[in-house]
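Our platform keeps sequence and structure together, in a single record for each protein. This encoding replaces a full spatial description with a residue-level series of whole-number codes. We quote a single record here, exactly as it is kept in our systems:
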Amino acid sequence: MPDLSDPLVIGARRFTSRLLLGTGKYRDFRETREAVLASGAEIVTVAIRRMNLGQDSQQPSLLEFLPPSEFTLLPNTAGCYSAEEALRTLRLARELLDGHTLVKLEVLGDEQSLYPNMPETVKAARVLVAEGFEVMVYCSDDPIQAKVLEDLGCVAVMPLASLIGSGMGILNPWNIELILERVSVPVIVDAGVGTASDAAIAMELGCAGVLMNSAVAHARHPALMGEAMKRGVEAGRLAFRAGRMEKKSYRAAPSSPEGGLIGRSSS
């Protein structure tokens, strides 16, 4: 019987849930909280450039609905298109969140595809690690680049499944598997998940977790989709740990023993 304890370990931190949830795109902060609670997520991402964390005292703050006492906040650099923009954003996040060091780095290539700009991502990651940040990093599904980021000291690599907000699921599972073979830090699929089966597939491949936002926020019933994603991640993880049967394309195999059938001679 395998060990039933199965925490997600990121750096020195341990989490029960392997689902990470974004906090943007909901109708209001109340809906955000309902979806997060339904999903069971312990880590929630926060777009520092777009979300009020108390910078504007005249507007509601996300921290009133998702306080750091209940959740691990993961400040991210959504909307940044250069290493310098990303560095400024995460330094600001550290000030706003009293020295918080666990962050998600993403440096985008263009506004249409939101595909990662890897040269700028690597440049920013190198500086952030040197400054003491614990960097979880959004990246292309390139095993070479993923290994570079691990070697720089990033605590997790986060390859996209497909384009941000596309809901297309994992378009290249082979590249995800190559990354899993190359790196030892957690591999967390980020971007492109559309429904619970996409999350389950990511986990069945052996990923440590899944991060999503649009799939839950844009669902007709976000809280219900949050719960569906929770179950998809859990089912996929259990299937990975259980070890699936070998695929056999050449013949069918009966699920019950053939010996001793009624009306069939054993000779």
Remarks:
- The radius of gyration is 21 Å.
